[in-house]
Amino acid sequence: MVGVSDGQEAAQAPAGRPTPVGKPLLSLTLAAMLDDVHAHSGAVYLLVSQEPVLEMAVSAGLPRAFAAPWERVGLSAPIPVAEAVRERRLIWVGGEHEMARRYPRIAVVLPYPFALAAMPVATAATVYGAVYVTWPGSHPPDLSDGEREHLTAACDRLALRLERAAVENRPVHAEPDLLTPGGAGPADTLGTVEATRMVARLPYGLCSLDLHGRVGFANAATAELLDVPVSRLLGTQLWAAVPWLNDPVYEDQYRAALISQHVTSFVALRPPGDWLSFRLYPGTTGLSVRISRARPVSEMTRAGPQRSDGSPRLVTISHVLSLASALTEAAGVQDVVQLIADEISPAVGSQALVVLGSRAGRLHVLGHRGYPDAHTVERFDGLPLSEQTPGTQALNTGVPAFFDSREQLERLYPSRYSTPDGMGAWAYLPLIASGRPVGTCVLGYAQSHHFATDERAVLTSLGGLIAQALERALLYDAKLQLAQGLQAALLPSSLPPLASIEAAARYLPATQGMDIGGDFYDLVSSHGRAAAVIGDVQGHNVTAAGLMGQIRTAVRAYTAVGQAPEEVMGSTNRLLIDLGTELFASCLYLRLDPARGVAVMARAGHPPPLLRRPDGKVKVLDLAGGPLLGIDPYAVYPTTEVPLVPGSVLALYTDGLIESPGVDIEDALADLAQRLAVTGDQPLDELADSLLQRGEEGGQERPDDVALLLLRVRPPADTARKR
Question: Phi and psi at residue 53, in whole multiples of 5°?
């Protein structure tokens, strides 16, 4: 048993000869907890030694297979027990809709009405694990104060007992799950022989299923309706004994009834043309099923879709659903690597992973986790694909390879003698997407590990999911790199040094779309004076960026030939119309003349600039102006002369800095002015970062890109030194 100091650092239990704990500590605690709050099911997780992983130690109330995708979970995984440990607090999920909104990966696998609470098992200094409990869908949407107190107190007591066990060097191990076994025969199930005779005389089928779905009792009518002898039904799962019920859709109803504790029903076609109605009545020990003939046209009452029991097939489906949901969230390659580390490695029990790709005939390490010495992995980066290594072989052939031990790997690849990575077993999964290999996922196991046939099938299937996510991620990274390169090429790489003006600029792309947009800025020195421009071409795509580059070049050219501000704006407007792009642009252009202490400005539908005076007062410059560029070929753009004094700051920006959903534009502009007033004495680069920081707080999405250009008039003494 391992604890984690402050919820993060692993601390080994005292060394010594282990002695088992005398009583089933976890089982007894969990059973008492479920009883105190009248919960339906639950589980206790313990932190794994030397790994940021929670592992289910005991479950109760429902078969463990229902939670198969989460038997081992990374501490960073977005599920309630992991979040409870990370945040050291009780996590409450009041129903299926809240589960779908907050934890979609769980809702995909268990889309049923139930409530859940997850709590950390921790002392003030150490986290030992976590507990979750669930209630049927009939539970109120809020957790009561009494339930909260019972659960918190129980977890605190368990943490103290685990702490005592660690101090006394008594390891706490996994314990048998708590499930009420199904009855062995009719008398056990229905109570009396007479009751059994009565049921046998009924014209419709009655049978009982235990929590695993196994038939414990079936009357004669059940055998007749299903066309299967009672002897073949007893002790087997209903969908396994009856071929035409062997469909996850039907088993889904059993899972829905058990988890939600709601009566569910469905109809099924018994070949060749007989429809049967099944009605499931759940309890805490199993299900009672009523079977009768149905009309040819029947409707099935849903309780919510999914699967899973003890069979490896259904556990595999649950894992695939959960992991597929997780991998859809990955954008870039590093997101894929992190999700494999957080979701897949804990689920399959591996301790390390490497994701390999190929480029120009060589192997490349796209990412890795679990190796203390990164050089161990990175020495394979750049290896020719012609080299005989398990990584290149899997990539070249598309055939998975499994090595149960170091000896087995080194016997087939003797070169591995000189490159040990500290692992004891490996799975090399080729990542095939769209019919071509995109990489190899290497899972490393700390100890020797036997890969059974069904486990190999599961890992190979997971490789297909990873491949699809990796292919998307590689395309995303390539697109992002192209977009960022194009944007960088179209914006000035640096601002020219000016004797009398200090300048700083920032650009942030929108987080929605292609990470590229039409916002631009520039600072030009011409004819002994400085000109500044900022603008915004509508759109966040390559077309907008290309047009932005043309406008910026045009403004520079018109400035270089000495046009006045109103002429620069008029010429740029006519150029945009002549290009026939059907896109519009806002723009603000100004000619700075520090010697005279003025700036002459022309505006085309652009947000007004802000002027901060040396005394800290900020004014919104409500300039005269004309329409957006690209609308009216005959538009005129009047100019406004604004006095500038040394120490004053001009803030030019695009609307992405002040516009956000649900916020009034006037309030946002006032807030920007207030922040400029408070922080305006900072060095200009720090001031630019400060003004952008507000929009970055909370990790909110940016629906629009942002450009910011700050200009500060130097005092005469600074100007002389600059010269």
Answer: -135, 140
Burial of 578 (0-12, 13-18, 19+ CB in 10 A): exposed
Is 80 exceeded by the pLDDT of residue 718?
Answer: no
Tell me the HSE value of 167 on the side-chain side, using a 13 A CA sphere: 7
Whole-angstrom distance, CA of residue 59 vs CA of residue 435: 41
Q: Would strands 618-620 and 401-403 be described as parallel, antiparallel, or unpaired?
A: unpaired
* Stated pTM of the model: 0.52
DSSP of 390-446: HHHHHHHH---EEESSHHHHHHH-GGGGGS--S-SEEEEEEEEETTEEEEEEEEEES
Which residues, 6+ apart, have CB-to-CB distance to 73 below 8 Å? 45, 53, 54, 79, 81, 82, 343, 346, 347
Give the pair of three-digit tokens for residue 702: 């940016």
H-helix or E-strand containing 30? helix 25-37
Contact 81, 45 (CB under 8 A): yes
Phi, psi (deg, nearest 5) at residue 599: -130, 130
How far apart, in whole angstroms, are the C-alpha atoms of residue 697 and residue 497?
A: 32
Provide the terminal-to-terminal Cα distance of the chain, rounded to the nearest Å. Answer: 70
Q: Which of 325, 354, 337, 367 is nearest to 78 (CA)?
A: 325
Do residues 277 and 293 make contact, with C-beta atoms less than 8 angstroms apart?
yes
Sheet harboring 205-210: ordered strands across?
Answer: 215-218, 205-210, 286-293, 274-282, 264-270
Q: Is the pLDDT of residue 8 over 50?
A: no
Burial class (CB in 10 A: 0-12, 13-18, 19+), 670: middle
The DSSP element (H or E) to which 592 belongs, if any, is strand 585-593
Cα 33 to Cα 51: distance, rounded to the nearest angstrom: 27
Q: Which two tokens stand for residue 592?
A: 């700075």
Which token pair is 163?
């702490």
* Euclidean distance between CA atoms 672 and 681, whole angstroms: 15
The three-point CA angle 64-68-73 to 5° equals: 115
Instruction: Give residue 653's identity as a one-letter amino acid code.
Output: Y
Confidence of residue 528 (pLDDT cuts 50, 70, 90): low
Contact 116, 98 (CB under 8 A): no
- List pLDDT tens digits, range 581-622: 778 899 999 998 877 888 999 999 999 999 999 999 999 998
Q: At what angle do helices 565-579 and 542-560 cross, to 10 degrees?
A: 140
CA–CA separation, 178 and 285 (whole Å): 11
Determine the Cα–Cα distance for residues 257 and 266; give it in Å rounded to an integer: 11
Q: What is the largest CA-CA distance in the chain?
A: 111
Residue 635 phi/psi, 5° resolution? -65, 145
Q: Residues 333, 354: contact at Cβ < 8 Å?
A: no
3-state secondary structure (DSSP) of residue 279: strand
The enclosing H or E element of 278 equals strand 274-282
Rounded Cα distance between 320 and 460, Å, is 11
Task: Return d(Cα 611, Cα 621) in angstroms, integer.
Answer: 7
- Pick the range with the lowest mean pLDDT from 85-89, 212-216, 432-436: 432-436
Q: Which of 673, 611, 610, 597 is nearest to 648 (CA)?
A: 611
Q: What gap in Å lies between CA 468 and CA 476, rounded to an integer?
A: 12
CB 184 within 8 A of CB 192: no
Q: How far from 701 is each of 332, 334, 487, CA to CA, in Å?
A: 17, 20, 19
Contact 706, 519 (CB under 8 A): yes
3-state secondary structure string across 107-143: HHHCCCCEEEEEEEEECCCEEEEEEEEEEECCCCCCC
CB 205 within 8 A of CB 291: yes
